[in-house]
Write a structure and sequence with these properties.
By secondary structure, the protein is α/β, with parallel strands linked by helices. The chain has 2 domains: 262 residues, 3-Layer(aba) Sandwich (Aminopeptidase); 114 residues, Alpha-Beta Plaits (2-Layer Sandwich), CATH 3.30.70.360. It contains 11 helices and 16 strands. The strands form 4 sheets. It has an 8-stranded mixed beta sheet with strand order 1-2-4-3-5-16-6-15, sandwiched between helices. The chain has a 4-stranded antiparallel beta sheet with strand order 10-12-8-13, covered by helices on one side. It binds zinc ion (2 copies). One zinc ion binds next to loops. Its cofactor is Mn(2+). One of its GO terms (molecular function) is N-acetyldiaminopimelate deacetylase activity.
Length: 390
């Protein structure tokens, strides 16, 4: 596998960084220690500019190449945040922070981008500049959106954006991407039902929110089967129903919560409208009040056709023809890199990390062996998109 030699040469350093980050996970926008660690490494590498405090703890590093580059520069993005999970790996480098863990491999993503930074700062075999984006709050909070809202893409002249996510269950070092939508939009709904509680022996004197919750839960399932065109992919998952406290009391309130995953804004509009109609209709039928709060979360992650083909070509140059899959393929998962792809063309790429526990599981751990491969991909993206002249 033609991993860049100098990067292979500091694979042990990358492993040490990754394990340090893994042992010290931070959540959401509170990635202070992670950002400090990143800034220390970037200073050692001699990058040209370090901008801190974007989206609270986000960091953008600028490395200058040689000569001019016309047009927007490449932005490479790594996420930094961990998850509220108690780690069960028993690894030597396991989390030292109770209830927090890098169960999505963002420690590995940060490490791969640091590896790329070290090589790019040493060699500078590209024209113009490159922006390395270290982003907090991917798992919740939409840190990518906050960085975009704070003007990051414009102020650094970023014209195209790329991100890399590890994929358990795919062969280690195998890349996969495709044109168009690759991950779903992620909406969240809350339904608050208010009826009239009372004695369970006298239901006729109540307006039962339990039956209304059941009615709404079942009716919502007809949206996918009855209201959405058969070829439009969509998931509606009801994930919480909370109500009641005793066998002899009909409660006053019930609460339902869940997520809607779609790829098309028109489908999203249709689902939201139907949910309002169904909730209102069911509430009327059961004689209760019900309020639907439907919030648009992360938008679908949509790769630019040309940039995703380019990213696949670059991946082939690193991993070889047989180790890159390029085809239309969608997952119902979601990713806030979508906000950057709404503003700039680019591509979201997966890198296999072999067998083992899946993402967001307490036994998950990033595979250090793929870090030099991912770092080489990041470097080649820059060198190929912004080649030296002559
Ligand atoms: Zn995750
Ligand atoms: Zn992730």
């Amino acid at each position: 596998m033609p991993v860049i030699n100098s990067i292979a040469g500091f694979a042990e350093d990358m492993k040490a960084w990754r394990r340090h980050l893994h042992a010290n996970p931070e959540l959401g926008f509170d990635c202070h220690d992670t950002a400090s660690f990143i800034v220390e490494r970037l200073r050692e590498f001699g990058v040209d500019e370090i901008h801190q405090g974007i989206a609270k703890t986000g960091v953008v590093a600028i490395i200058e190449g040689r000569g001019r580059h016309r047009g927007g520069i490449v932005g490479l993005r790594a996420d930094m945040d961990a998850l509220p999970i108690e780690e069960s790996t028993g690894a030597e480098h396991a989390s030292t922070r109770a209830g927090k863990m890098h169960a999505c491999g963002h420690d590995g993503h940060t490490t791969m981008l640091l590896g790329a930074a070290r090589h790019l700062a040493e060699t500078r075999n590209f024209s113009g500049k490159v922006a390395l984006i270290f982003q907090p709050a991917e798992e919740a909070g939409g840190g990518a959106n906050v960085m975009v809202q704070e003007g990051m893409l414009d102020s650094f002249g970023i014209g195209q954006v790329y991100a890399l996510h590890n994929a358990p269950g795919y062969p280690a070092g195998h890349f996969a991407t495709g044109p168009g939508p690759v991950l779903a939009g992620d909406d969240i709904f809350h339904i608050h039902i208010t009826g009239v509680g009372g004695h369970a022996a006298h239901p006729d004197e109540t307006r039962d929110p339990v039956m209304a919750a059941v009615g709404i839960a079942q009716a919502l399932q007809t949206i996918v089967s009855r209201n959405i065109y058969g070829r439009d992919e969509m998931v509606l998952s009801l994930t919480q129903i909370h109500t009641g406290s005793s066998d002899n009391i009909i409660p006053e309130k019930a609460y339902l919560n869940g997520t809607v995953r779609t790829f098309d804004p028109l489908v999203q509009d249709r689902v939201e409208a139907r949910m309002h109609e169904i909730v209102a209709g069911q509430a009327a039928a059961y004689g209760v009040e019900a309020v639907l709060d439907y919030a648009r979360g992360y938008p679908p992650t949509i790769n630019d056709p040309e940039k995703s083909a380019f990213a696949a070509e670059v991946a082939r140059s690193v991993a070889g023809e047989d180790n890159v899959t390029y085809r239309e393929d969608r997952s119902m998962g979601a990713e806030d890199f979508a906000f950057m792809l709404q503003e700039r063309p680019g591509a979201y790429m997966l890198i296999g990390q072999g067998e083992g526990a899946g993402l967001h599981q307490p036994g998950y751990d990033f595979n250090d062996e793929i870090a030099p491969v991912g770092a080489s991909y990041f470097v080649r993206l820059v060198e190929t998109a912004q080649p030296l002249e002559g």
